[in-house]
């Protein structure tokens, strides 16, 4: 250690007590969003599963009486997902988003499959913060 380095500013962060700020473009845990009226945004176009390089997204859909499609099953395998953001970019209705949640864990192997209900609950819980980050990020798109 040189004398100059000894007196320079420290860069070590005492995580988890002190957290560094996250970029609005941070890609964390995936979530499904709803419209303001509570209806889910996903139209079952399957673009997200088609563009996923890790093939982590699987879904099943059915047609409604009014002619629109909605998902009956939507699952993301958290062990396969590489958090690349391609699914978010491909979605035409902004249904699937990446939140800034990075502190989560799984204790059982079956928890790796994130179901539609789990993803919608995450979207509901972090909706406000996700919308703020998306507005900040919109200048780069």
From TrEMBL:
Gene Ontology biological process: aerobic respiration
Record domain 4Fe-4S ferredoxin-type: where: 33-62, 72-101
UniProt KW keywords: 4Fe-4S, Iron, Iron-sulfur, Metal-binding, Translocase
Cited SUPFAM superfamilies: 4Fe-4S ferredoxins (SSF54862)
NCBIfam families membership: NuoI (TIGR01971), PRK05888.1-4 (NF004538)
Family label: Belongs to the complex I 23 kDa subunit family.
Protein name (Swiss-Prot/TrEMBL): 4Fe-4S ferredoxin-type domain-containing protein
